[in-house]
Amino acid sequence: MTTILENKLINESNEQKEWKDIKVKLVATSIKAMVILNIGGEKDTFFTALFSKESQLERDHNDGSIFIDRTGKIFTYILEYFRTNTVPINVMKDETLLNSLFIEAEYFRLYSLMDRLGIIYFPNGSLLQPTHQRKLNEFYGKIYQRWELIYKASRDGFGTNAFHSRCNNQGPTMTIVQSNNNYLFGGYTSIPWTSDGSYKNDTTAF
């Protein structure tokens, strides 16, 4: 029992040290030849910019290394995506992990991976299919916009007071409604909701 526990602690210690040493350390000072990066067929990613002449990332004064201080655990899924062009099923079923991976994909500008994780555009909702989500973001003008669910009638209540208590003064909002016949409709406004009873004009609404 003691030996098993000791081995487990050693393995965990080595794993932590490995990721601490990595912190995604990319040595770029000795690169003299042309470097072509093809990350999932994408040219305009964080990694292609990294090796460009315009890269402004701070380098280590000792060896010229570039440190990208990101979560090592999540980066393993990005590496796996590079190798296999797939996302593990356990990631897709874990909303917390899925959201973390989306944030990293957004940071590294891996748009194809963001598309693969597209359901996170409207997290915690149950009305929109991935195609609906992308189409709404197209209407909005930002394909990879992520939204926060601030009100859900089936969870927070169907009354106007419940709606306004959660939606007032929250900035731009996208409202999605499902009718009794299962039809979806709604709209977007850049003007925050209020309870003052006044009408406002929004030229960006749809």
TrEMBL record:
GO terms for biological process: protein homooligomerization. SUPFAM superfamilies: POZ domain. It comes from Rotaria sordida. This is TLDc domain-containing protein. Residues 118-206 form the TLDc domain. The lineage of its organism: Eukaryota, Metazoa, Spiralia, Gnathifera, Rotifera. InterPro entries: BACURD1-3, SKP1/BTB/POZ_sf, T1-type_BTB, TLDc_dom.
